[in-house]
Amino acid sequence: MKQTISMIRKELDSYFSSPMALIFVGVFLAVTFFTFFWVNSFWLRGLADVRPLFANLPVLMIFLISALTMRQWSEEQSDGTLELLFTLPTTTIQLILGKFFAVLVLVMVALAFTLVLPITVSLVGNPDWGPIIGGYIASLLLASVYIAIGLFVSSRTDNQIVALIISALVCGAFHIIGTTLITNLVSGDIANLLRAISTSARFESIQRGVIDLRDIVYYLGLTVIFLALNVISLEGKRWGKGSQLSGYRLNSRLTVGLLAGNLLALSLLIAPVTFARADLTADRQYTLSDVTRNLLGNLNEPLLVRAYISERNHPLLEPLIPQLVDSLQEYAVLSDGKMTVEVVDPITNPEIETEANQTYGIRPTPLQIASRASSELLNVYFDLLIRYGDQAETLNFGQLIQVEQVGGDVRVSFRNLEYDLTSTIKRVVSGFQNIDAVLASLDEGAQMTLYYTPTTLPDALKEAPVTIQTVADDITSKAGGKFTYEVVNVENANISPRELFDQYGIRPIATDFFGTQNYYLHLVIKAGDKDPQVIFPSGNFSEGEIRTQIESSLKRISSGFVQVVGIWTPPNIPQQDMFGQQIPSLSQYTLVSRYLSDNYELQTVDLSTGEAPTGIDILIVVAPQNMTDYERFAIDQFLMRGGSVMVLASNYRLSIDPMSQTPLIEPIQGTLNELLAHYGVTVEEGVVLDKQNQDFPIPVQRNVGGITVQEIRLLDYPPFVDIRQSGMSRDLPITNNIPAVILAWASPLSIGELGEDVTSTTLMTSTSNAVTTTQITFEPNQNLEYGFVPTGSAQKYTLAVALQGSFSSYFNDKPSPFESAFTAEQARLAEATPEAVVLPESTPSAEATPESTIEATAEATPEATTEPIPTNTPAPTATPLPVSAVSEIEQSPPTARLIVVGSAEFINDNLLQLFEQAVQDAATNNLTLMQNSVEWFTEDTELATIRARGVTSRLLNPLTDAEKAQWEFINYAVAIAGVIGLGIVWRLRKRAEQPFELLTESQTEESDEQN
Questions:
Q1: Residue 163 pLDDT > 60, yes or no?
Q2: Which of 16-30, 183-197, 937-951 is predicted least confidently?
Q3: What's 158's DSSP letter?
Q4: C-alpha distances in Å from residue 583, one per residue of 466, 656, 909
Q5: Helix, strand, coil abundance in the chain, percent, nearest 5
Q6: Is the per-residue pLDDT at 891 higher than 80?
Q7: Are strands 409-414 and 401-406 parallel, antiparallel or unpaired?
Q8: H or E element: which one contains 544?
Q9: Whether 723 contacts 765, CB under 8 Å
Q10: What count of other Cβ atoms lies within 10 Å of the Cβ of residue 345?
């Protein structure tokens, strides 16, 4: 050990006694910092990571390490000092290890100086230190391989230039064989083999932040093999050429061959081992979560996951195939035999391809492959089939991958493989569950109770209790004791209206819009400690409708079932320009629907009938405008039934000027602001302007020599409020793990008076450097600080809130649209045929219902049905409910939830595409906010923890150009100071060394006599 340390010191002294070490460190840092800030455009990326640092390290180290190792043995041989080393009391292995660790220490010193980069990133952002640590570990492992190769090559020649060139070629070969440049030329299996022995592919694996046993064995094994070859090479210089040593030479070479064979066998042995690894990432992105483990552990039926993958695939997709197969194998292990994984090539098996095409709609995707010599169109398969029972879903590679343009290179990686696989498996498992499986998943079974008053039911609802009992009998007969029901006549039962309200939030329903007599017709479903589900009367009491409502309620109190999301968006009506040509509308919100439909059943809803569709669990209203009272009533009553509502309540929208065909911002009429204010959320006038914002490419006109020139400029745009984690709540999972959200033309919100049982949480706020303006246009005035004339002083503004509790109906103190229409119709008919109209008395009896009156009136005056009803409320576009079927609920149960966001344009398709170009994950972050909101509504927040681990990037804090330049200068200064300091320290150390004291001739003779 002492000999090895002495050899290390000797080599380091040799490096630092000349400018070589400082030149190496200086060149290494110069190239690294230049590529980090300029070639890879660190500030332009806006991401708090140091991937650019490690992106070019493999290539950079090939040349620098070759330059360091070229002289190690070549110089010893050319100077004739190699024989002197052999005479020292050290072994060949100790000499080699001394030189190996000396070079490795110098590389470590150079890498240590680059630590200023991740430190800087941590000061201007919140990076994940796992990939950073993994990147440095991968760099040291890669350097060890290159050093071992360089030492071996140097031992084979006494010419340093030859050693430099050959070392660079060998190291470059190990690097390049795993790149697409080479793998494009061979078939799938050979390409996978080349990637397996390539240093670059292994480097990328570790720098993700995953320390895999297979990668460690590969790097250490390759290092040991070349060090062993170095030993044989040096020992061979001691051997003679005669036949006496031929056996020794053969045994030595066989020993190295055996060592290499054992290491290869070990690599093959542990190749299937996917669990022996350490995930260093903050959120354990590459480790299967407990959500996945629980889902796979609770499978009741066999799950088939079949990967349709062409043997010859696109070069950018081929590196993903081993990752996909490894992940599927991990899933299979966790399923305890319930999951079967198959990897097939449909192109080589016509039967499988026919089944894939005809049964599952899986077809090859034509992809163009270009090379230097030619270009061809290749039809490839890269699809997944996930089948559970009679349910099946497919995933194409377009749904699994993300593509990044880094300089001139295109990088393809999985978007978030675990989230895509787990969410799809969850959907097919949920879709397979019938009502029997739903009940079987309940520990204590479910009990349904019908509360009704038979004597006061309207005529139109007289048969409803019988229909409900018919459906309940059918479910009970098939439930195996997991479902029971009872019928309670509230008129003579031992439960009071007060108790019903306190326990379930149930209120009696008036029989008409004028009288005081009420009726009950409510279903309550309870299961264990779950919140009771209350089914309120609906306009359609058919058996199918009742069964749907009961099954939907049972699924809501169960876990793992697909929720139904209803979404209302403004009509996408094209405009016309001055020439009568159609201009596409800028109010498009299809991306959010596509995004949510990955995990939920999505329905586009029409609320003009005055009622939300049956079976909807969540209602999202995007940019409400020109809303009728029917639509307001439908939203209000959906919330009163305990539903969850999300309103993107913008006061302004993005539009287009039909004359100039330029974008403009226009105010919205007919909003839900009055309805929301009743619930306690006031949408204030104006738009929030924040100094922390997202830039916006805007067409700007300037005068050039009297000619107006229009150009696109990336301008500071305060209406695009950039909300970071400091402006988000951590009290609810809605905004957890979202690095940033960009709200466009957002209106400020304020919390007013809330109900006694309603709680509110502020989800997002602007910075304290925000103001508002009511003079908003599309293009800002660059001469103004905020681009627009502010209306107040700078302060924080609330931009999104979440409310939960028991809300009171907006229509409690005002007539519903049905009542207005009914009153207007009665008045008109009374004027036309007063003898035919029978107005209800002050205390109508159960027998004399408004329904019978309406029917009699209609028979007496049939022409009345053909004329429009005079009312201030616009008539619905769809057929409204009959008046007799309308029930107005005055108070919601405490499970009702409401989210209000002061912007709708932040999910506008046009802006999402713009954000995606400006900031890579900004569009995804905005959609993730919507997804998290839906999951909070359904209390199914498990998938959010998986999704947040992969699809969102950590962003840099907003910085001005001057601040960016300052941080960059600091990095350069630290690097230069470090190199200078290293030289000074080594020089002072050398000066402090005491020279050996030389003995005189007499002292030498005395020493010899004593010995």
A1: yes
A2: 937-951
A3: S
A4: 55, 8, 16
A5: 45, 20, 35
A6: yes
A7: antiparallel
A8: helix 543-556
A9: yes
A10: 17
Which is nearest to 570 in space by CA: 644, 619, 624?
624
d(C-alpha 916, C-alpha 922), whole Å: 6
Identify which of 928, 892, 878, 699 has the alpha carbon closest to the alpha carbon of residue 807.
892
Q: CA 907, CA 904: separation in Å to the nearest integer?
A: 6
Rounded to 10 deg, the angle between the 199-207 and 129-155 helix axes is 160
Residue environment code for 609-623, b if the CB has 16+ CB neighbours within 10 A, otherwise e: bbbbbbbbbbbbbbb
- Its pTM stands at 0.66
**What's the first-to-final CA gap in the chain, in angstroms?**
28
Average pLDDT over residues 615-643: 91
Strands 618-622 and 644-648: parallel
Buried/exposed code over 812-823 (b: 16+ C-beta within 10 A; e: otherwise): eeeebbbbbbbe
CA separation for the pair 354, 342 (Å, rounded): 17
Query: CA angle, corner 303, sides to 301 and 309, nearest 5?
Result: 165
Output phi, psi for 155, to 5 deg.
Answer: -75, -10
| CA dist 856 → 838, 850, 862 (Å) | 9, 10, 10
User: What share of the chain has pLDDT > 90, as a percent?
Assistant: 25
Given a cut of 80, whether residue 463 has pLDDT beyond it is yes
Beta bridge mates, 567:
604, 620
The pLDDT of residue 462: 85
Tokens of residue 47, six digits? 């991401």
733 contact partners, CB below 8 Å, separation of at least 6: 932, 935, 936, 941, 944
d(C-alpha 412, C-alpha 324), whole Å: 13
| Nearest to 971, CA basis, from 309, 24, 35 | 35
Select the more confidently predicted residue: 186 or 627. 627
In a 3-state reduction of DSSP, which class is residue 606? coil
The phi, psi pair for 365, rounded to 5°, reads -105, 125
Per-residue pLDDT tens digits for 698-737: 666 666 667 766 666 777 899 999 998 889 998 888 887 7
pLDDT digits (tens, 9 = 90+) for 52-75: 888 888 999 999 999 989 988 888
For residue 886, the model assigns a pLDDT of 53
Q: Tell me how far apart the alpha carbons of residues 741 and 299 are, in angstroms, rounded to a whole number.
A: 37
* 341 contacts 329 by C-beta, under 8 angstroms: yes
The 3-state secondary structure of 202-223 reads HHHHHHCCEEEHHHHHHHHHHH
Distance separating alpha carbons of residues 363 and 382, to the nearest angstrom: 10
* Residue that is written with structure tokens 């229509």 in the block: 811
Query: In the predicted model, what is the mean pLDDT of residues 83-108?
Result: 86
Number of other CB atoms surrounding residue 241 within 10 Å: 8
Residues with Cβ within 8 Å of 154's Cβ and at least 6 positions away in sequence, in order, are 69, 70, 71, 72, 73, 74, 160, 163, 167
Record the tokens describing residue 522, joined without a space. Answer: 């409510």
- Give the three-class secondary structure for 850: helix
Name the DSSP class of 306: E
Q: Two tokens at 107?
A: 């590389």
Task: Evaluate if residue 352 carries a pLDDT over 80.
Answer: yes
Q: Quick one: average pLDDT of 633-645?
A: 90
Higher pLDDT, 186 or 975: 975
Reported in sequence order, the residue ranges of 170-272 that DSSP labels E, i.e. its strands, are 210-212
User: What are the contacts of 990-994 at 24+ separation with CB within 8 A?
Assistant: 990/16, 990/17
What the block records as the tokens of 49 is 């990571």
- Sign of torsion over alpha carbons 198, 201, 204, 210: negative
Query: Residue 897 has what pLDDT?
Result: 93
Neighbour-count burial of 397, counting CB atoms closer than 10 A to its CB (0-12 exposed, 13-18 middle, 19+ buried): buried
> Model confidence at 81, in pLDDT bands (50, 70, 90)?
confident
Q: Enter the DSSP assignment of 725.
A: G
- Cβ contact 865:832 at 8 Å: no
Confidence of residue 539 (pLDDT cuts 50, 70, 90): low
> Hey, what amino acid is at 208?
R
